[in-house]
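> tool_call: predict_assembly(chains=two)
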Amino acid sequence: MHGLAFDIAHFLAGGMVVASFLLLYQDRLYALINVFALHSLVLALAVGWQAAIQGAHHLYITAGIALVFKAIVIPVALHRIVRRLGIHRTLEAVGGVGRDMLAGTGLVALAILVMLPVTATADALAREDLAFALAVVLLGLLLMVTRRNAVSLVIGFMSLENGLVLAAAGARGMPLAVEISVAFSVLIALIVIGIFLFRIRERFDSVDMQAMDTFREERRR
Amino acid sequence: MSGADLGLVAVAVLLGVPAGTALLLVLVSGYRLGARLNVGAALLCLLAAAALFQARPEANLYLRVDDFNIYLIALNNWVSFTTSVFSAGYIAHELETGRLTPVYLRFYHAMYQALLFAMNLALLANNIGLLWVAIELATLITVLMVGLYRTHAALEAAWKYFILGSLGIALALFGTILVYLAAQPVIGQGLPAMAWDRLLARADAFDPALLNLAFVFLLLGYGTKAGLVPLHAWLPDAHAEGPTPISAVLSGLLLNVALYAVLRFKMLMSANPSALAPGPLMVILGLLSLLFAGLMLYRRGDIKRLFAYSSIEHMGIITFAFGMGGPLANFAGLLHMTLHSLTKSAIFFTVGHISQVKGTQRISTIRGLTVTHPTLGWGLVAGVIAIAGMPPFGVFMSEFLVVSSTFARQPLLALPLVVGLLLAFGTLLWRLHGMAFGQPDGTAVVPVRASTLPTVVHLLLVLVAGFWLPEPLVAWFRHVAVLLG
């Protein structure tokens, strides 16, 4: 009933959800960064495909930013940071893989249940894209709340932003200003984070956020 | 020069001067010159904001000056001007005590102007995408400012703020995309479907289900930035650990800007008859914030944290008032927004001086200020009395309006509201008593050298507002209260 174009868009957006699940159970930093690169690569393909079928040429720029910046530059930079800090040890996932997977499945179901009825009047492509995008956003949130390490928090946040870019690309004719700003915000985010990571390293010899929690007011008195 | 031209020039100054000065300040190495430039640029913006009352530019797809934002722009630039005056004295002291180095000061001044630019852009924006970009920019800048001292606590605060702020910003973007999706079938693709005035004109034809979902995301997203419970966790830390001028700007202005964004979308919701009523959601979040902050005030040990929780409390009151809706409650909300900005920034000015002369922010070590530092002590007394909502200060009037309009319409809701107000009132006065009137601890008295003029002017304004509001201001509040629905 839908053409091949729809199937491919569906496949790519679904691929992002799968990549988000892959992120959830990576317990080593390098692997996490690599899967994030994959996540961004799928995003670039999905946005590129949207550009082709919508005939929206400005989306190619968004796809290009995703490919060059998020799939190559940021992962390489994060690899360097991890190496420089010497923190390529095992991550601690709070609660365990099984629980995270179950929670993730629940979130995807939630995203679909919320988005599909609401967008009944929108065209099929935008609906499905939006449902997947919300799923990616929620999975990104889940990654952020289950991880303690600063680097994996950052990756969770960026995967969440990938979901937002997917949503923006799926919305037909959404002005470019927003997409560029999303990409731009990631750039700034990385600068901020980079500074933070190095400062944190300088001060604590650890990027474990739990170590920082001890400086809360309540325990200082 | 014709009227429309003057308006255009004013808007150009409001955006161009802070942006240009930010770049210039990166190059200026002397901190005195930097501070003066900072004050000068803020003054120029204030004049431009005043010029907007003479002539408004035509709205376009990106920027718009209307009845709602014009007073907020004036308030924004007024408080950033007075804060820049306060900051000049405050920063000199920080440099002497070695808490900040000249390089950081250069950075600080540039960021201050960049923040002013971002807030003016958010208030002027007609495009919901641009609004989002501006608030995101403001978030990132304040993250950097909060971490300025580079202590353990400052880094933790900045990090927490960064993570929670980005989450809020991400949720808000998703909401913005959903609004665009709702508008796109009606208005058509492209920029007009993101222009707020076009959206408002056609909002009745939007798909209500999409709008509902969008509003939930926007309320949570921008609500995080406004410090509403349960998304407030960044706020006390960010206020306590950053430089005090930034606490003043955060509390006095940035929270308002975030709330302003929520209100813009609330107006869209109200324009659609079949969409969810946004009021109850805001009432719940507002009450939660008020009660939670009222309870949390009780055990604060840090003076800046104390007043940060008080900001959450007041944001709760304002959100509650706008959630109740109707001309009277909206009037009260707008008035409270204005008075809270003025009072809270004045309190932070005083607190900044106090923590400098005492060398600590711990409440338990601040004793008997009215004896050792009469100006500061009585300034604090006046500020706390004003913010706790006691007459004759203006905050009493706006809180009274909120309570009485609630009693008239929903007596049951007035109960938790009054409980929250009394909780905060009691705790603040109890804390004040020790700090202002307790026995001085006998350590050497360090004199204050900075100007207390900004504090005095702000508190006088709030005091005058308690007796008399100028007629144009009342007319404006009434008019906007009707617009807000």
